Amino acid sequence: MKIPELMLVNEIFRGLWTTFKSMFEKPVTIQYPEEKREPKPRFKGRHALKRYENGLEKCIGCALCAAACPSDAIFVEPAENTDKKRYSPGERYAVTYEINLLRCIYCGFCADACPTEAIVLEKIYELAYRDRNEAFFTKEKLLDPVSDPDLETPQTVEPGSFPRSIPLMKDPV
Description:
The protein is 20% helix and 14% strand. It is of the alpha+beta class. It has a domain at 47-146: Alpha-Beta Plaits, CATH 3.30.70.3270.
C-alpha cells in the first residue's frame, strides 16, 4: 500500500471509531410536545402586560415602548383615567395596546424603555399561527388575568380615535 492509501484507511477507521463511541452516549434529543425544555435565563419570548397586585394595569399609555421599537411593531393609544373608572394608577392608561409579532424582532427594547415595567418578554416560546391575524396581539391577549374578578372594571373609552400606525395584515387570497 502506498502512503495516501494508508492515510485514507486510517481516516476511515477514525470515523468508525467516533461512530462506535457515540453509540454508548446518552442522546441529546428531547421528545418536544411531551417534554418541554426550560429556556435559557436570557431568553426573550412572547410579550405580556403586567398588573399590580390590586388589579390595576401597570401600563400608563406613555408609548415609550412604541418609540423604542426598531421594527415599529407596537401601537399604543392612550386615554385619560377618571375617578369613577380607573385602569392604572397614573393619569392615563392604554386603551389600545397592540403588537404585531410578525414584525417583532424580540430585541427587548420595549421592556427596557417601559418606566413602569408593564411590558415584559416572558419565557413562552410556542408561537405558531395559522394566519396573520393570529400574530396580531391585542391588549386583551397580552394582559395578565385578574386574580380577583371584583377588581376588573369595564373599558369605557372606545379604541380607534387615533390613526393606526400598524396596518392590519390580510392573508392573500
